[in-house]
Design brief:
The chain is of the alpha/beta class. It is built from eight helices and seven strands. The termini are far apart.
């Protein structure tokens, strides 16, 4: 079983969804390898980093980042997700929690990551999460967001139900400008604004050629923001 990116996605955040995510990570599918590579480049995990994985699902990103010596904690509001994550990675910490009300003290974490999470949040919830994450990050902490680009060809086809099926759990797809504006309003400074091409060979070639000029070919958005006001924007050359 492999995560369906160009097919029918799980229709709800349920046991099937969680198991799909778990299987994709355990089998190291092309979708997973692309995702992990992008997350590594965004988060830049280091030994001793305290990292919170928002919407951890079956714990893939939590486990991946822990492999670099980081102290990771995965949180998810779905009990099924936490149960599966704990069964897969019993040595790691997973907590059932709402990302708008995190059970942690101020300045607890060095880094936060939201990988394929923010697209599941309505606008008001997204803003609440950004504010709460800002609270638990230290003064020079970072939040990394990896999310589908609604302006990409695949997402446009899904939106029109042309050949591809829309994922009904994606209630908060946002383009790069919208994400950056929300981050700025929550007190973050944009540190990196990037994107990655897909894992599909032919499409990937087209995306790499056209992506620097057209959002239509930017498969996944990769945005990192800092709680520190003094930072510099970094874009793909």
């Amino acid at each position: 079983m492999r995560l369906p990116t160009l097919g029918k996605a799980p229709s709800a955040y349920d046991e099937r969804f969680v198991e799909t995510m778990a299987t994709a990570y355990l089998n190291q599918t092309p979708w997973t390898k692309l995702r992990l590579g992008a997350i590594y480049g965004l988060v830049e995990p280091k030994r001793g980093d305290r990292i919170i994985d928002l919407g951890c699902a079956a714990g893939a990103i939590t486990h991946f980042l822990s492999e670099f010596g980081a102290e990771t904690i995965g949180i998810d509001s779905e009990p099924l997700a936490i149960e599966r994550a704990r069964s897969l990675f019993p040595s790691l910490e997973f907590i059932e929690a709402d990302a708008t009300r995190l059970p942690f003290d101020n300045n607890r974490f060095d880094k936060a990551v939201a990988a394929d999470f923010t697209e599941h949040l309505a606008d008001h919830t997204f803003c609440e999460v950004l504010s709460e994450v800002h609270r638990v990050l230290r003064s020079d902490g970072t939040l990394s967001i990896y999310t589908p680009n609604p302006r990409h060809l695949v997402e446009r086809l899904k939106r029109r139900n042309l050949l591809l099926a829309q994922n009904p759990t994606h209630i908060g797809l946002r383009n790069a400008t919208q994400i950056k504006e929300a981050l700025a309003a929550a007190g973050y400074a944009i540190e990196r604004n990037d994107w990655v091409a897909s894992f599909i060979p032919l499409l990937r070639i087209i995306e790499r050629a056209g992506g620097p000029r057209l959002e239509l070919f930017r498969y996944r958005l990769c945005i990192r923001a800092s709680t520190h006001p003094r930072t510099h924007n970094r874009r793909r050359p």
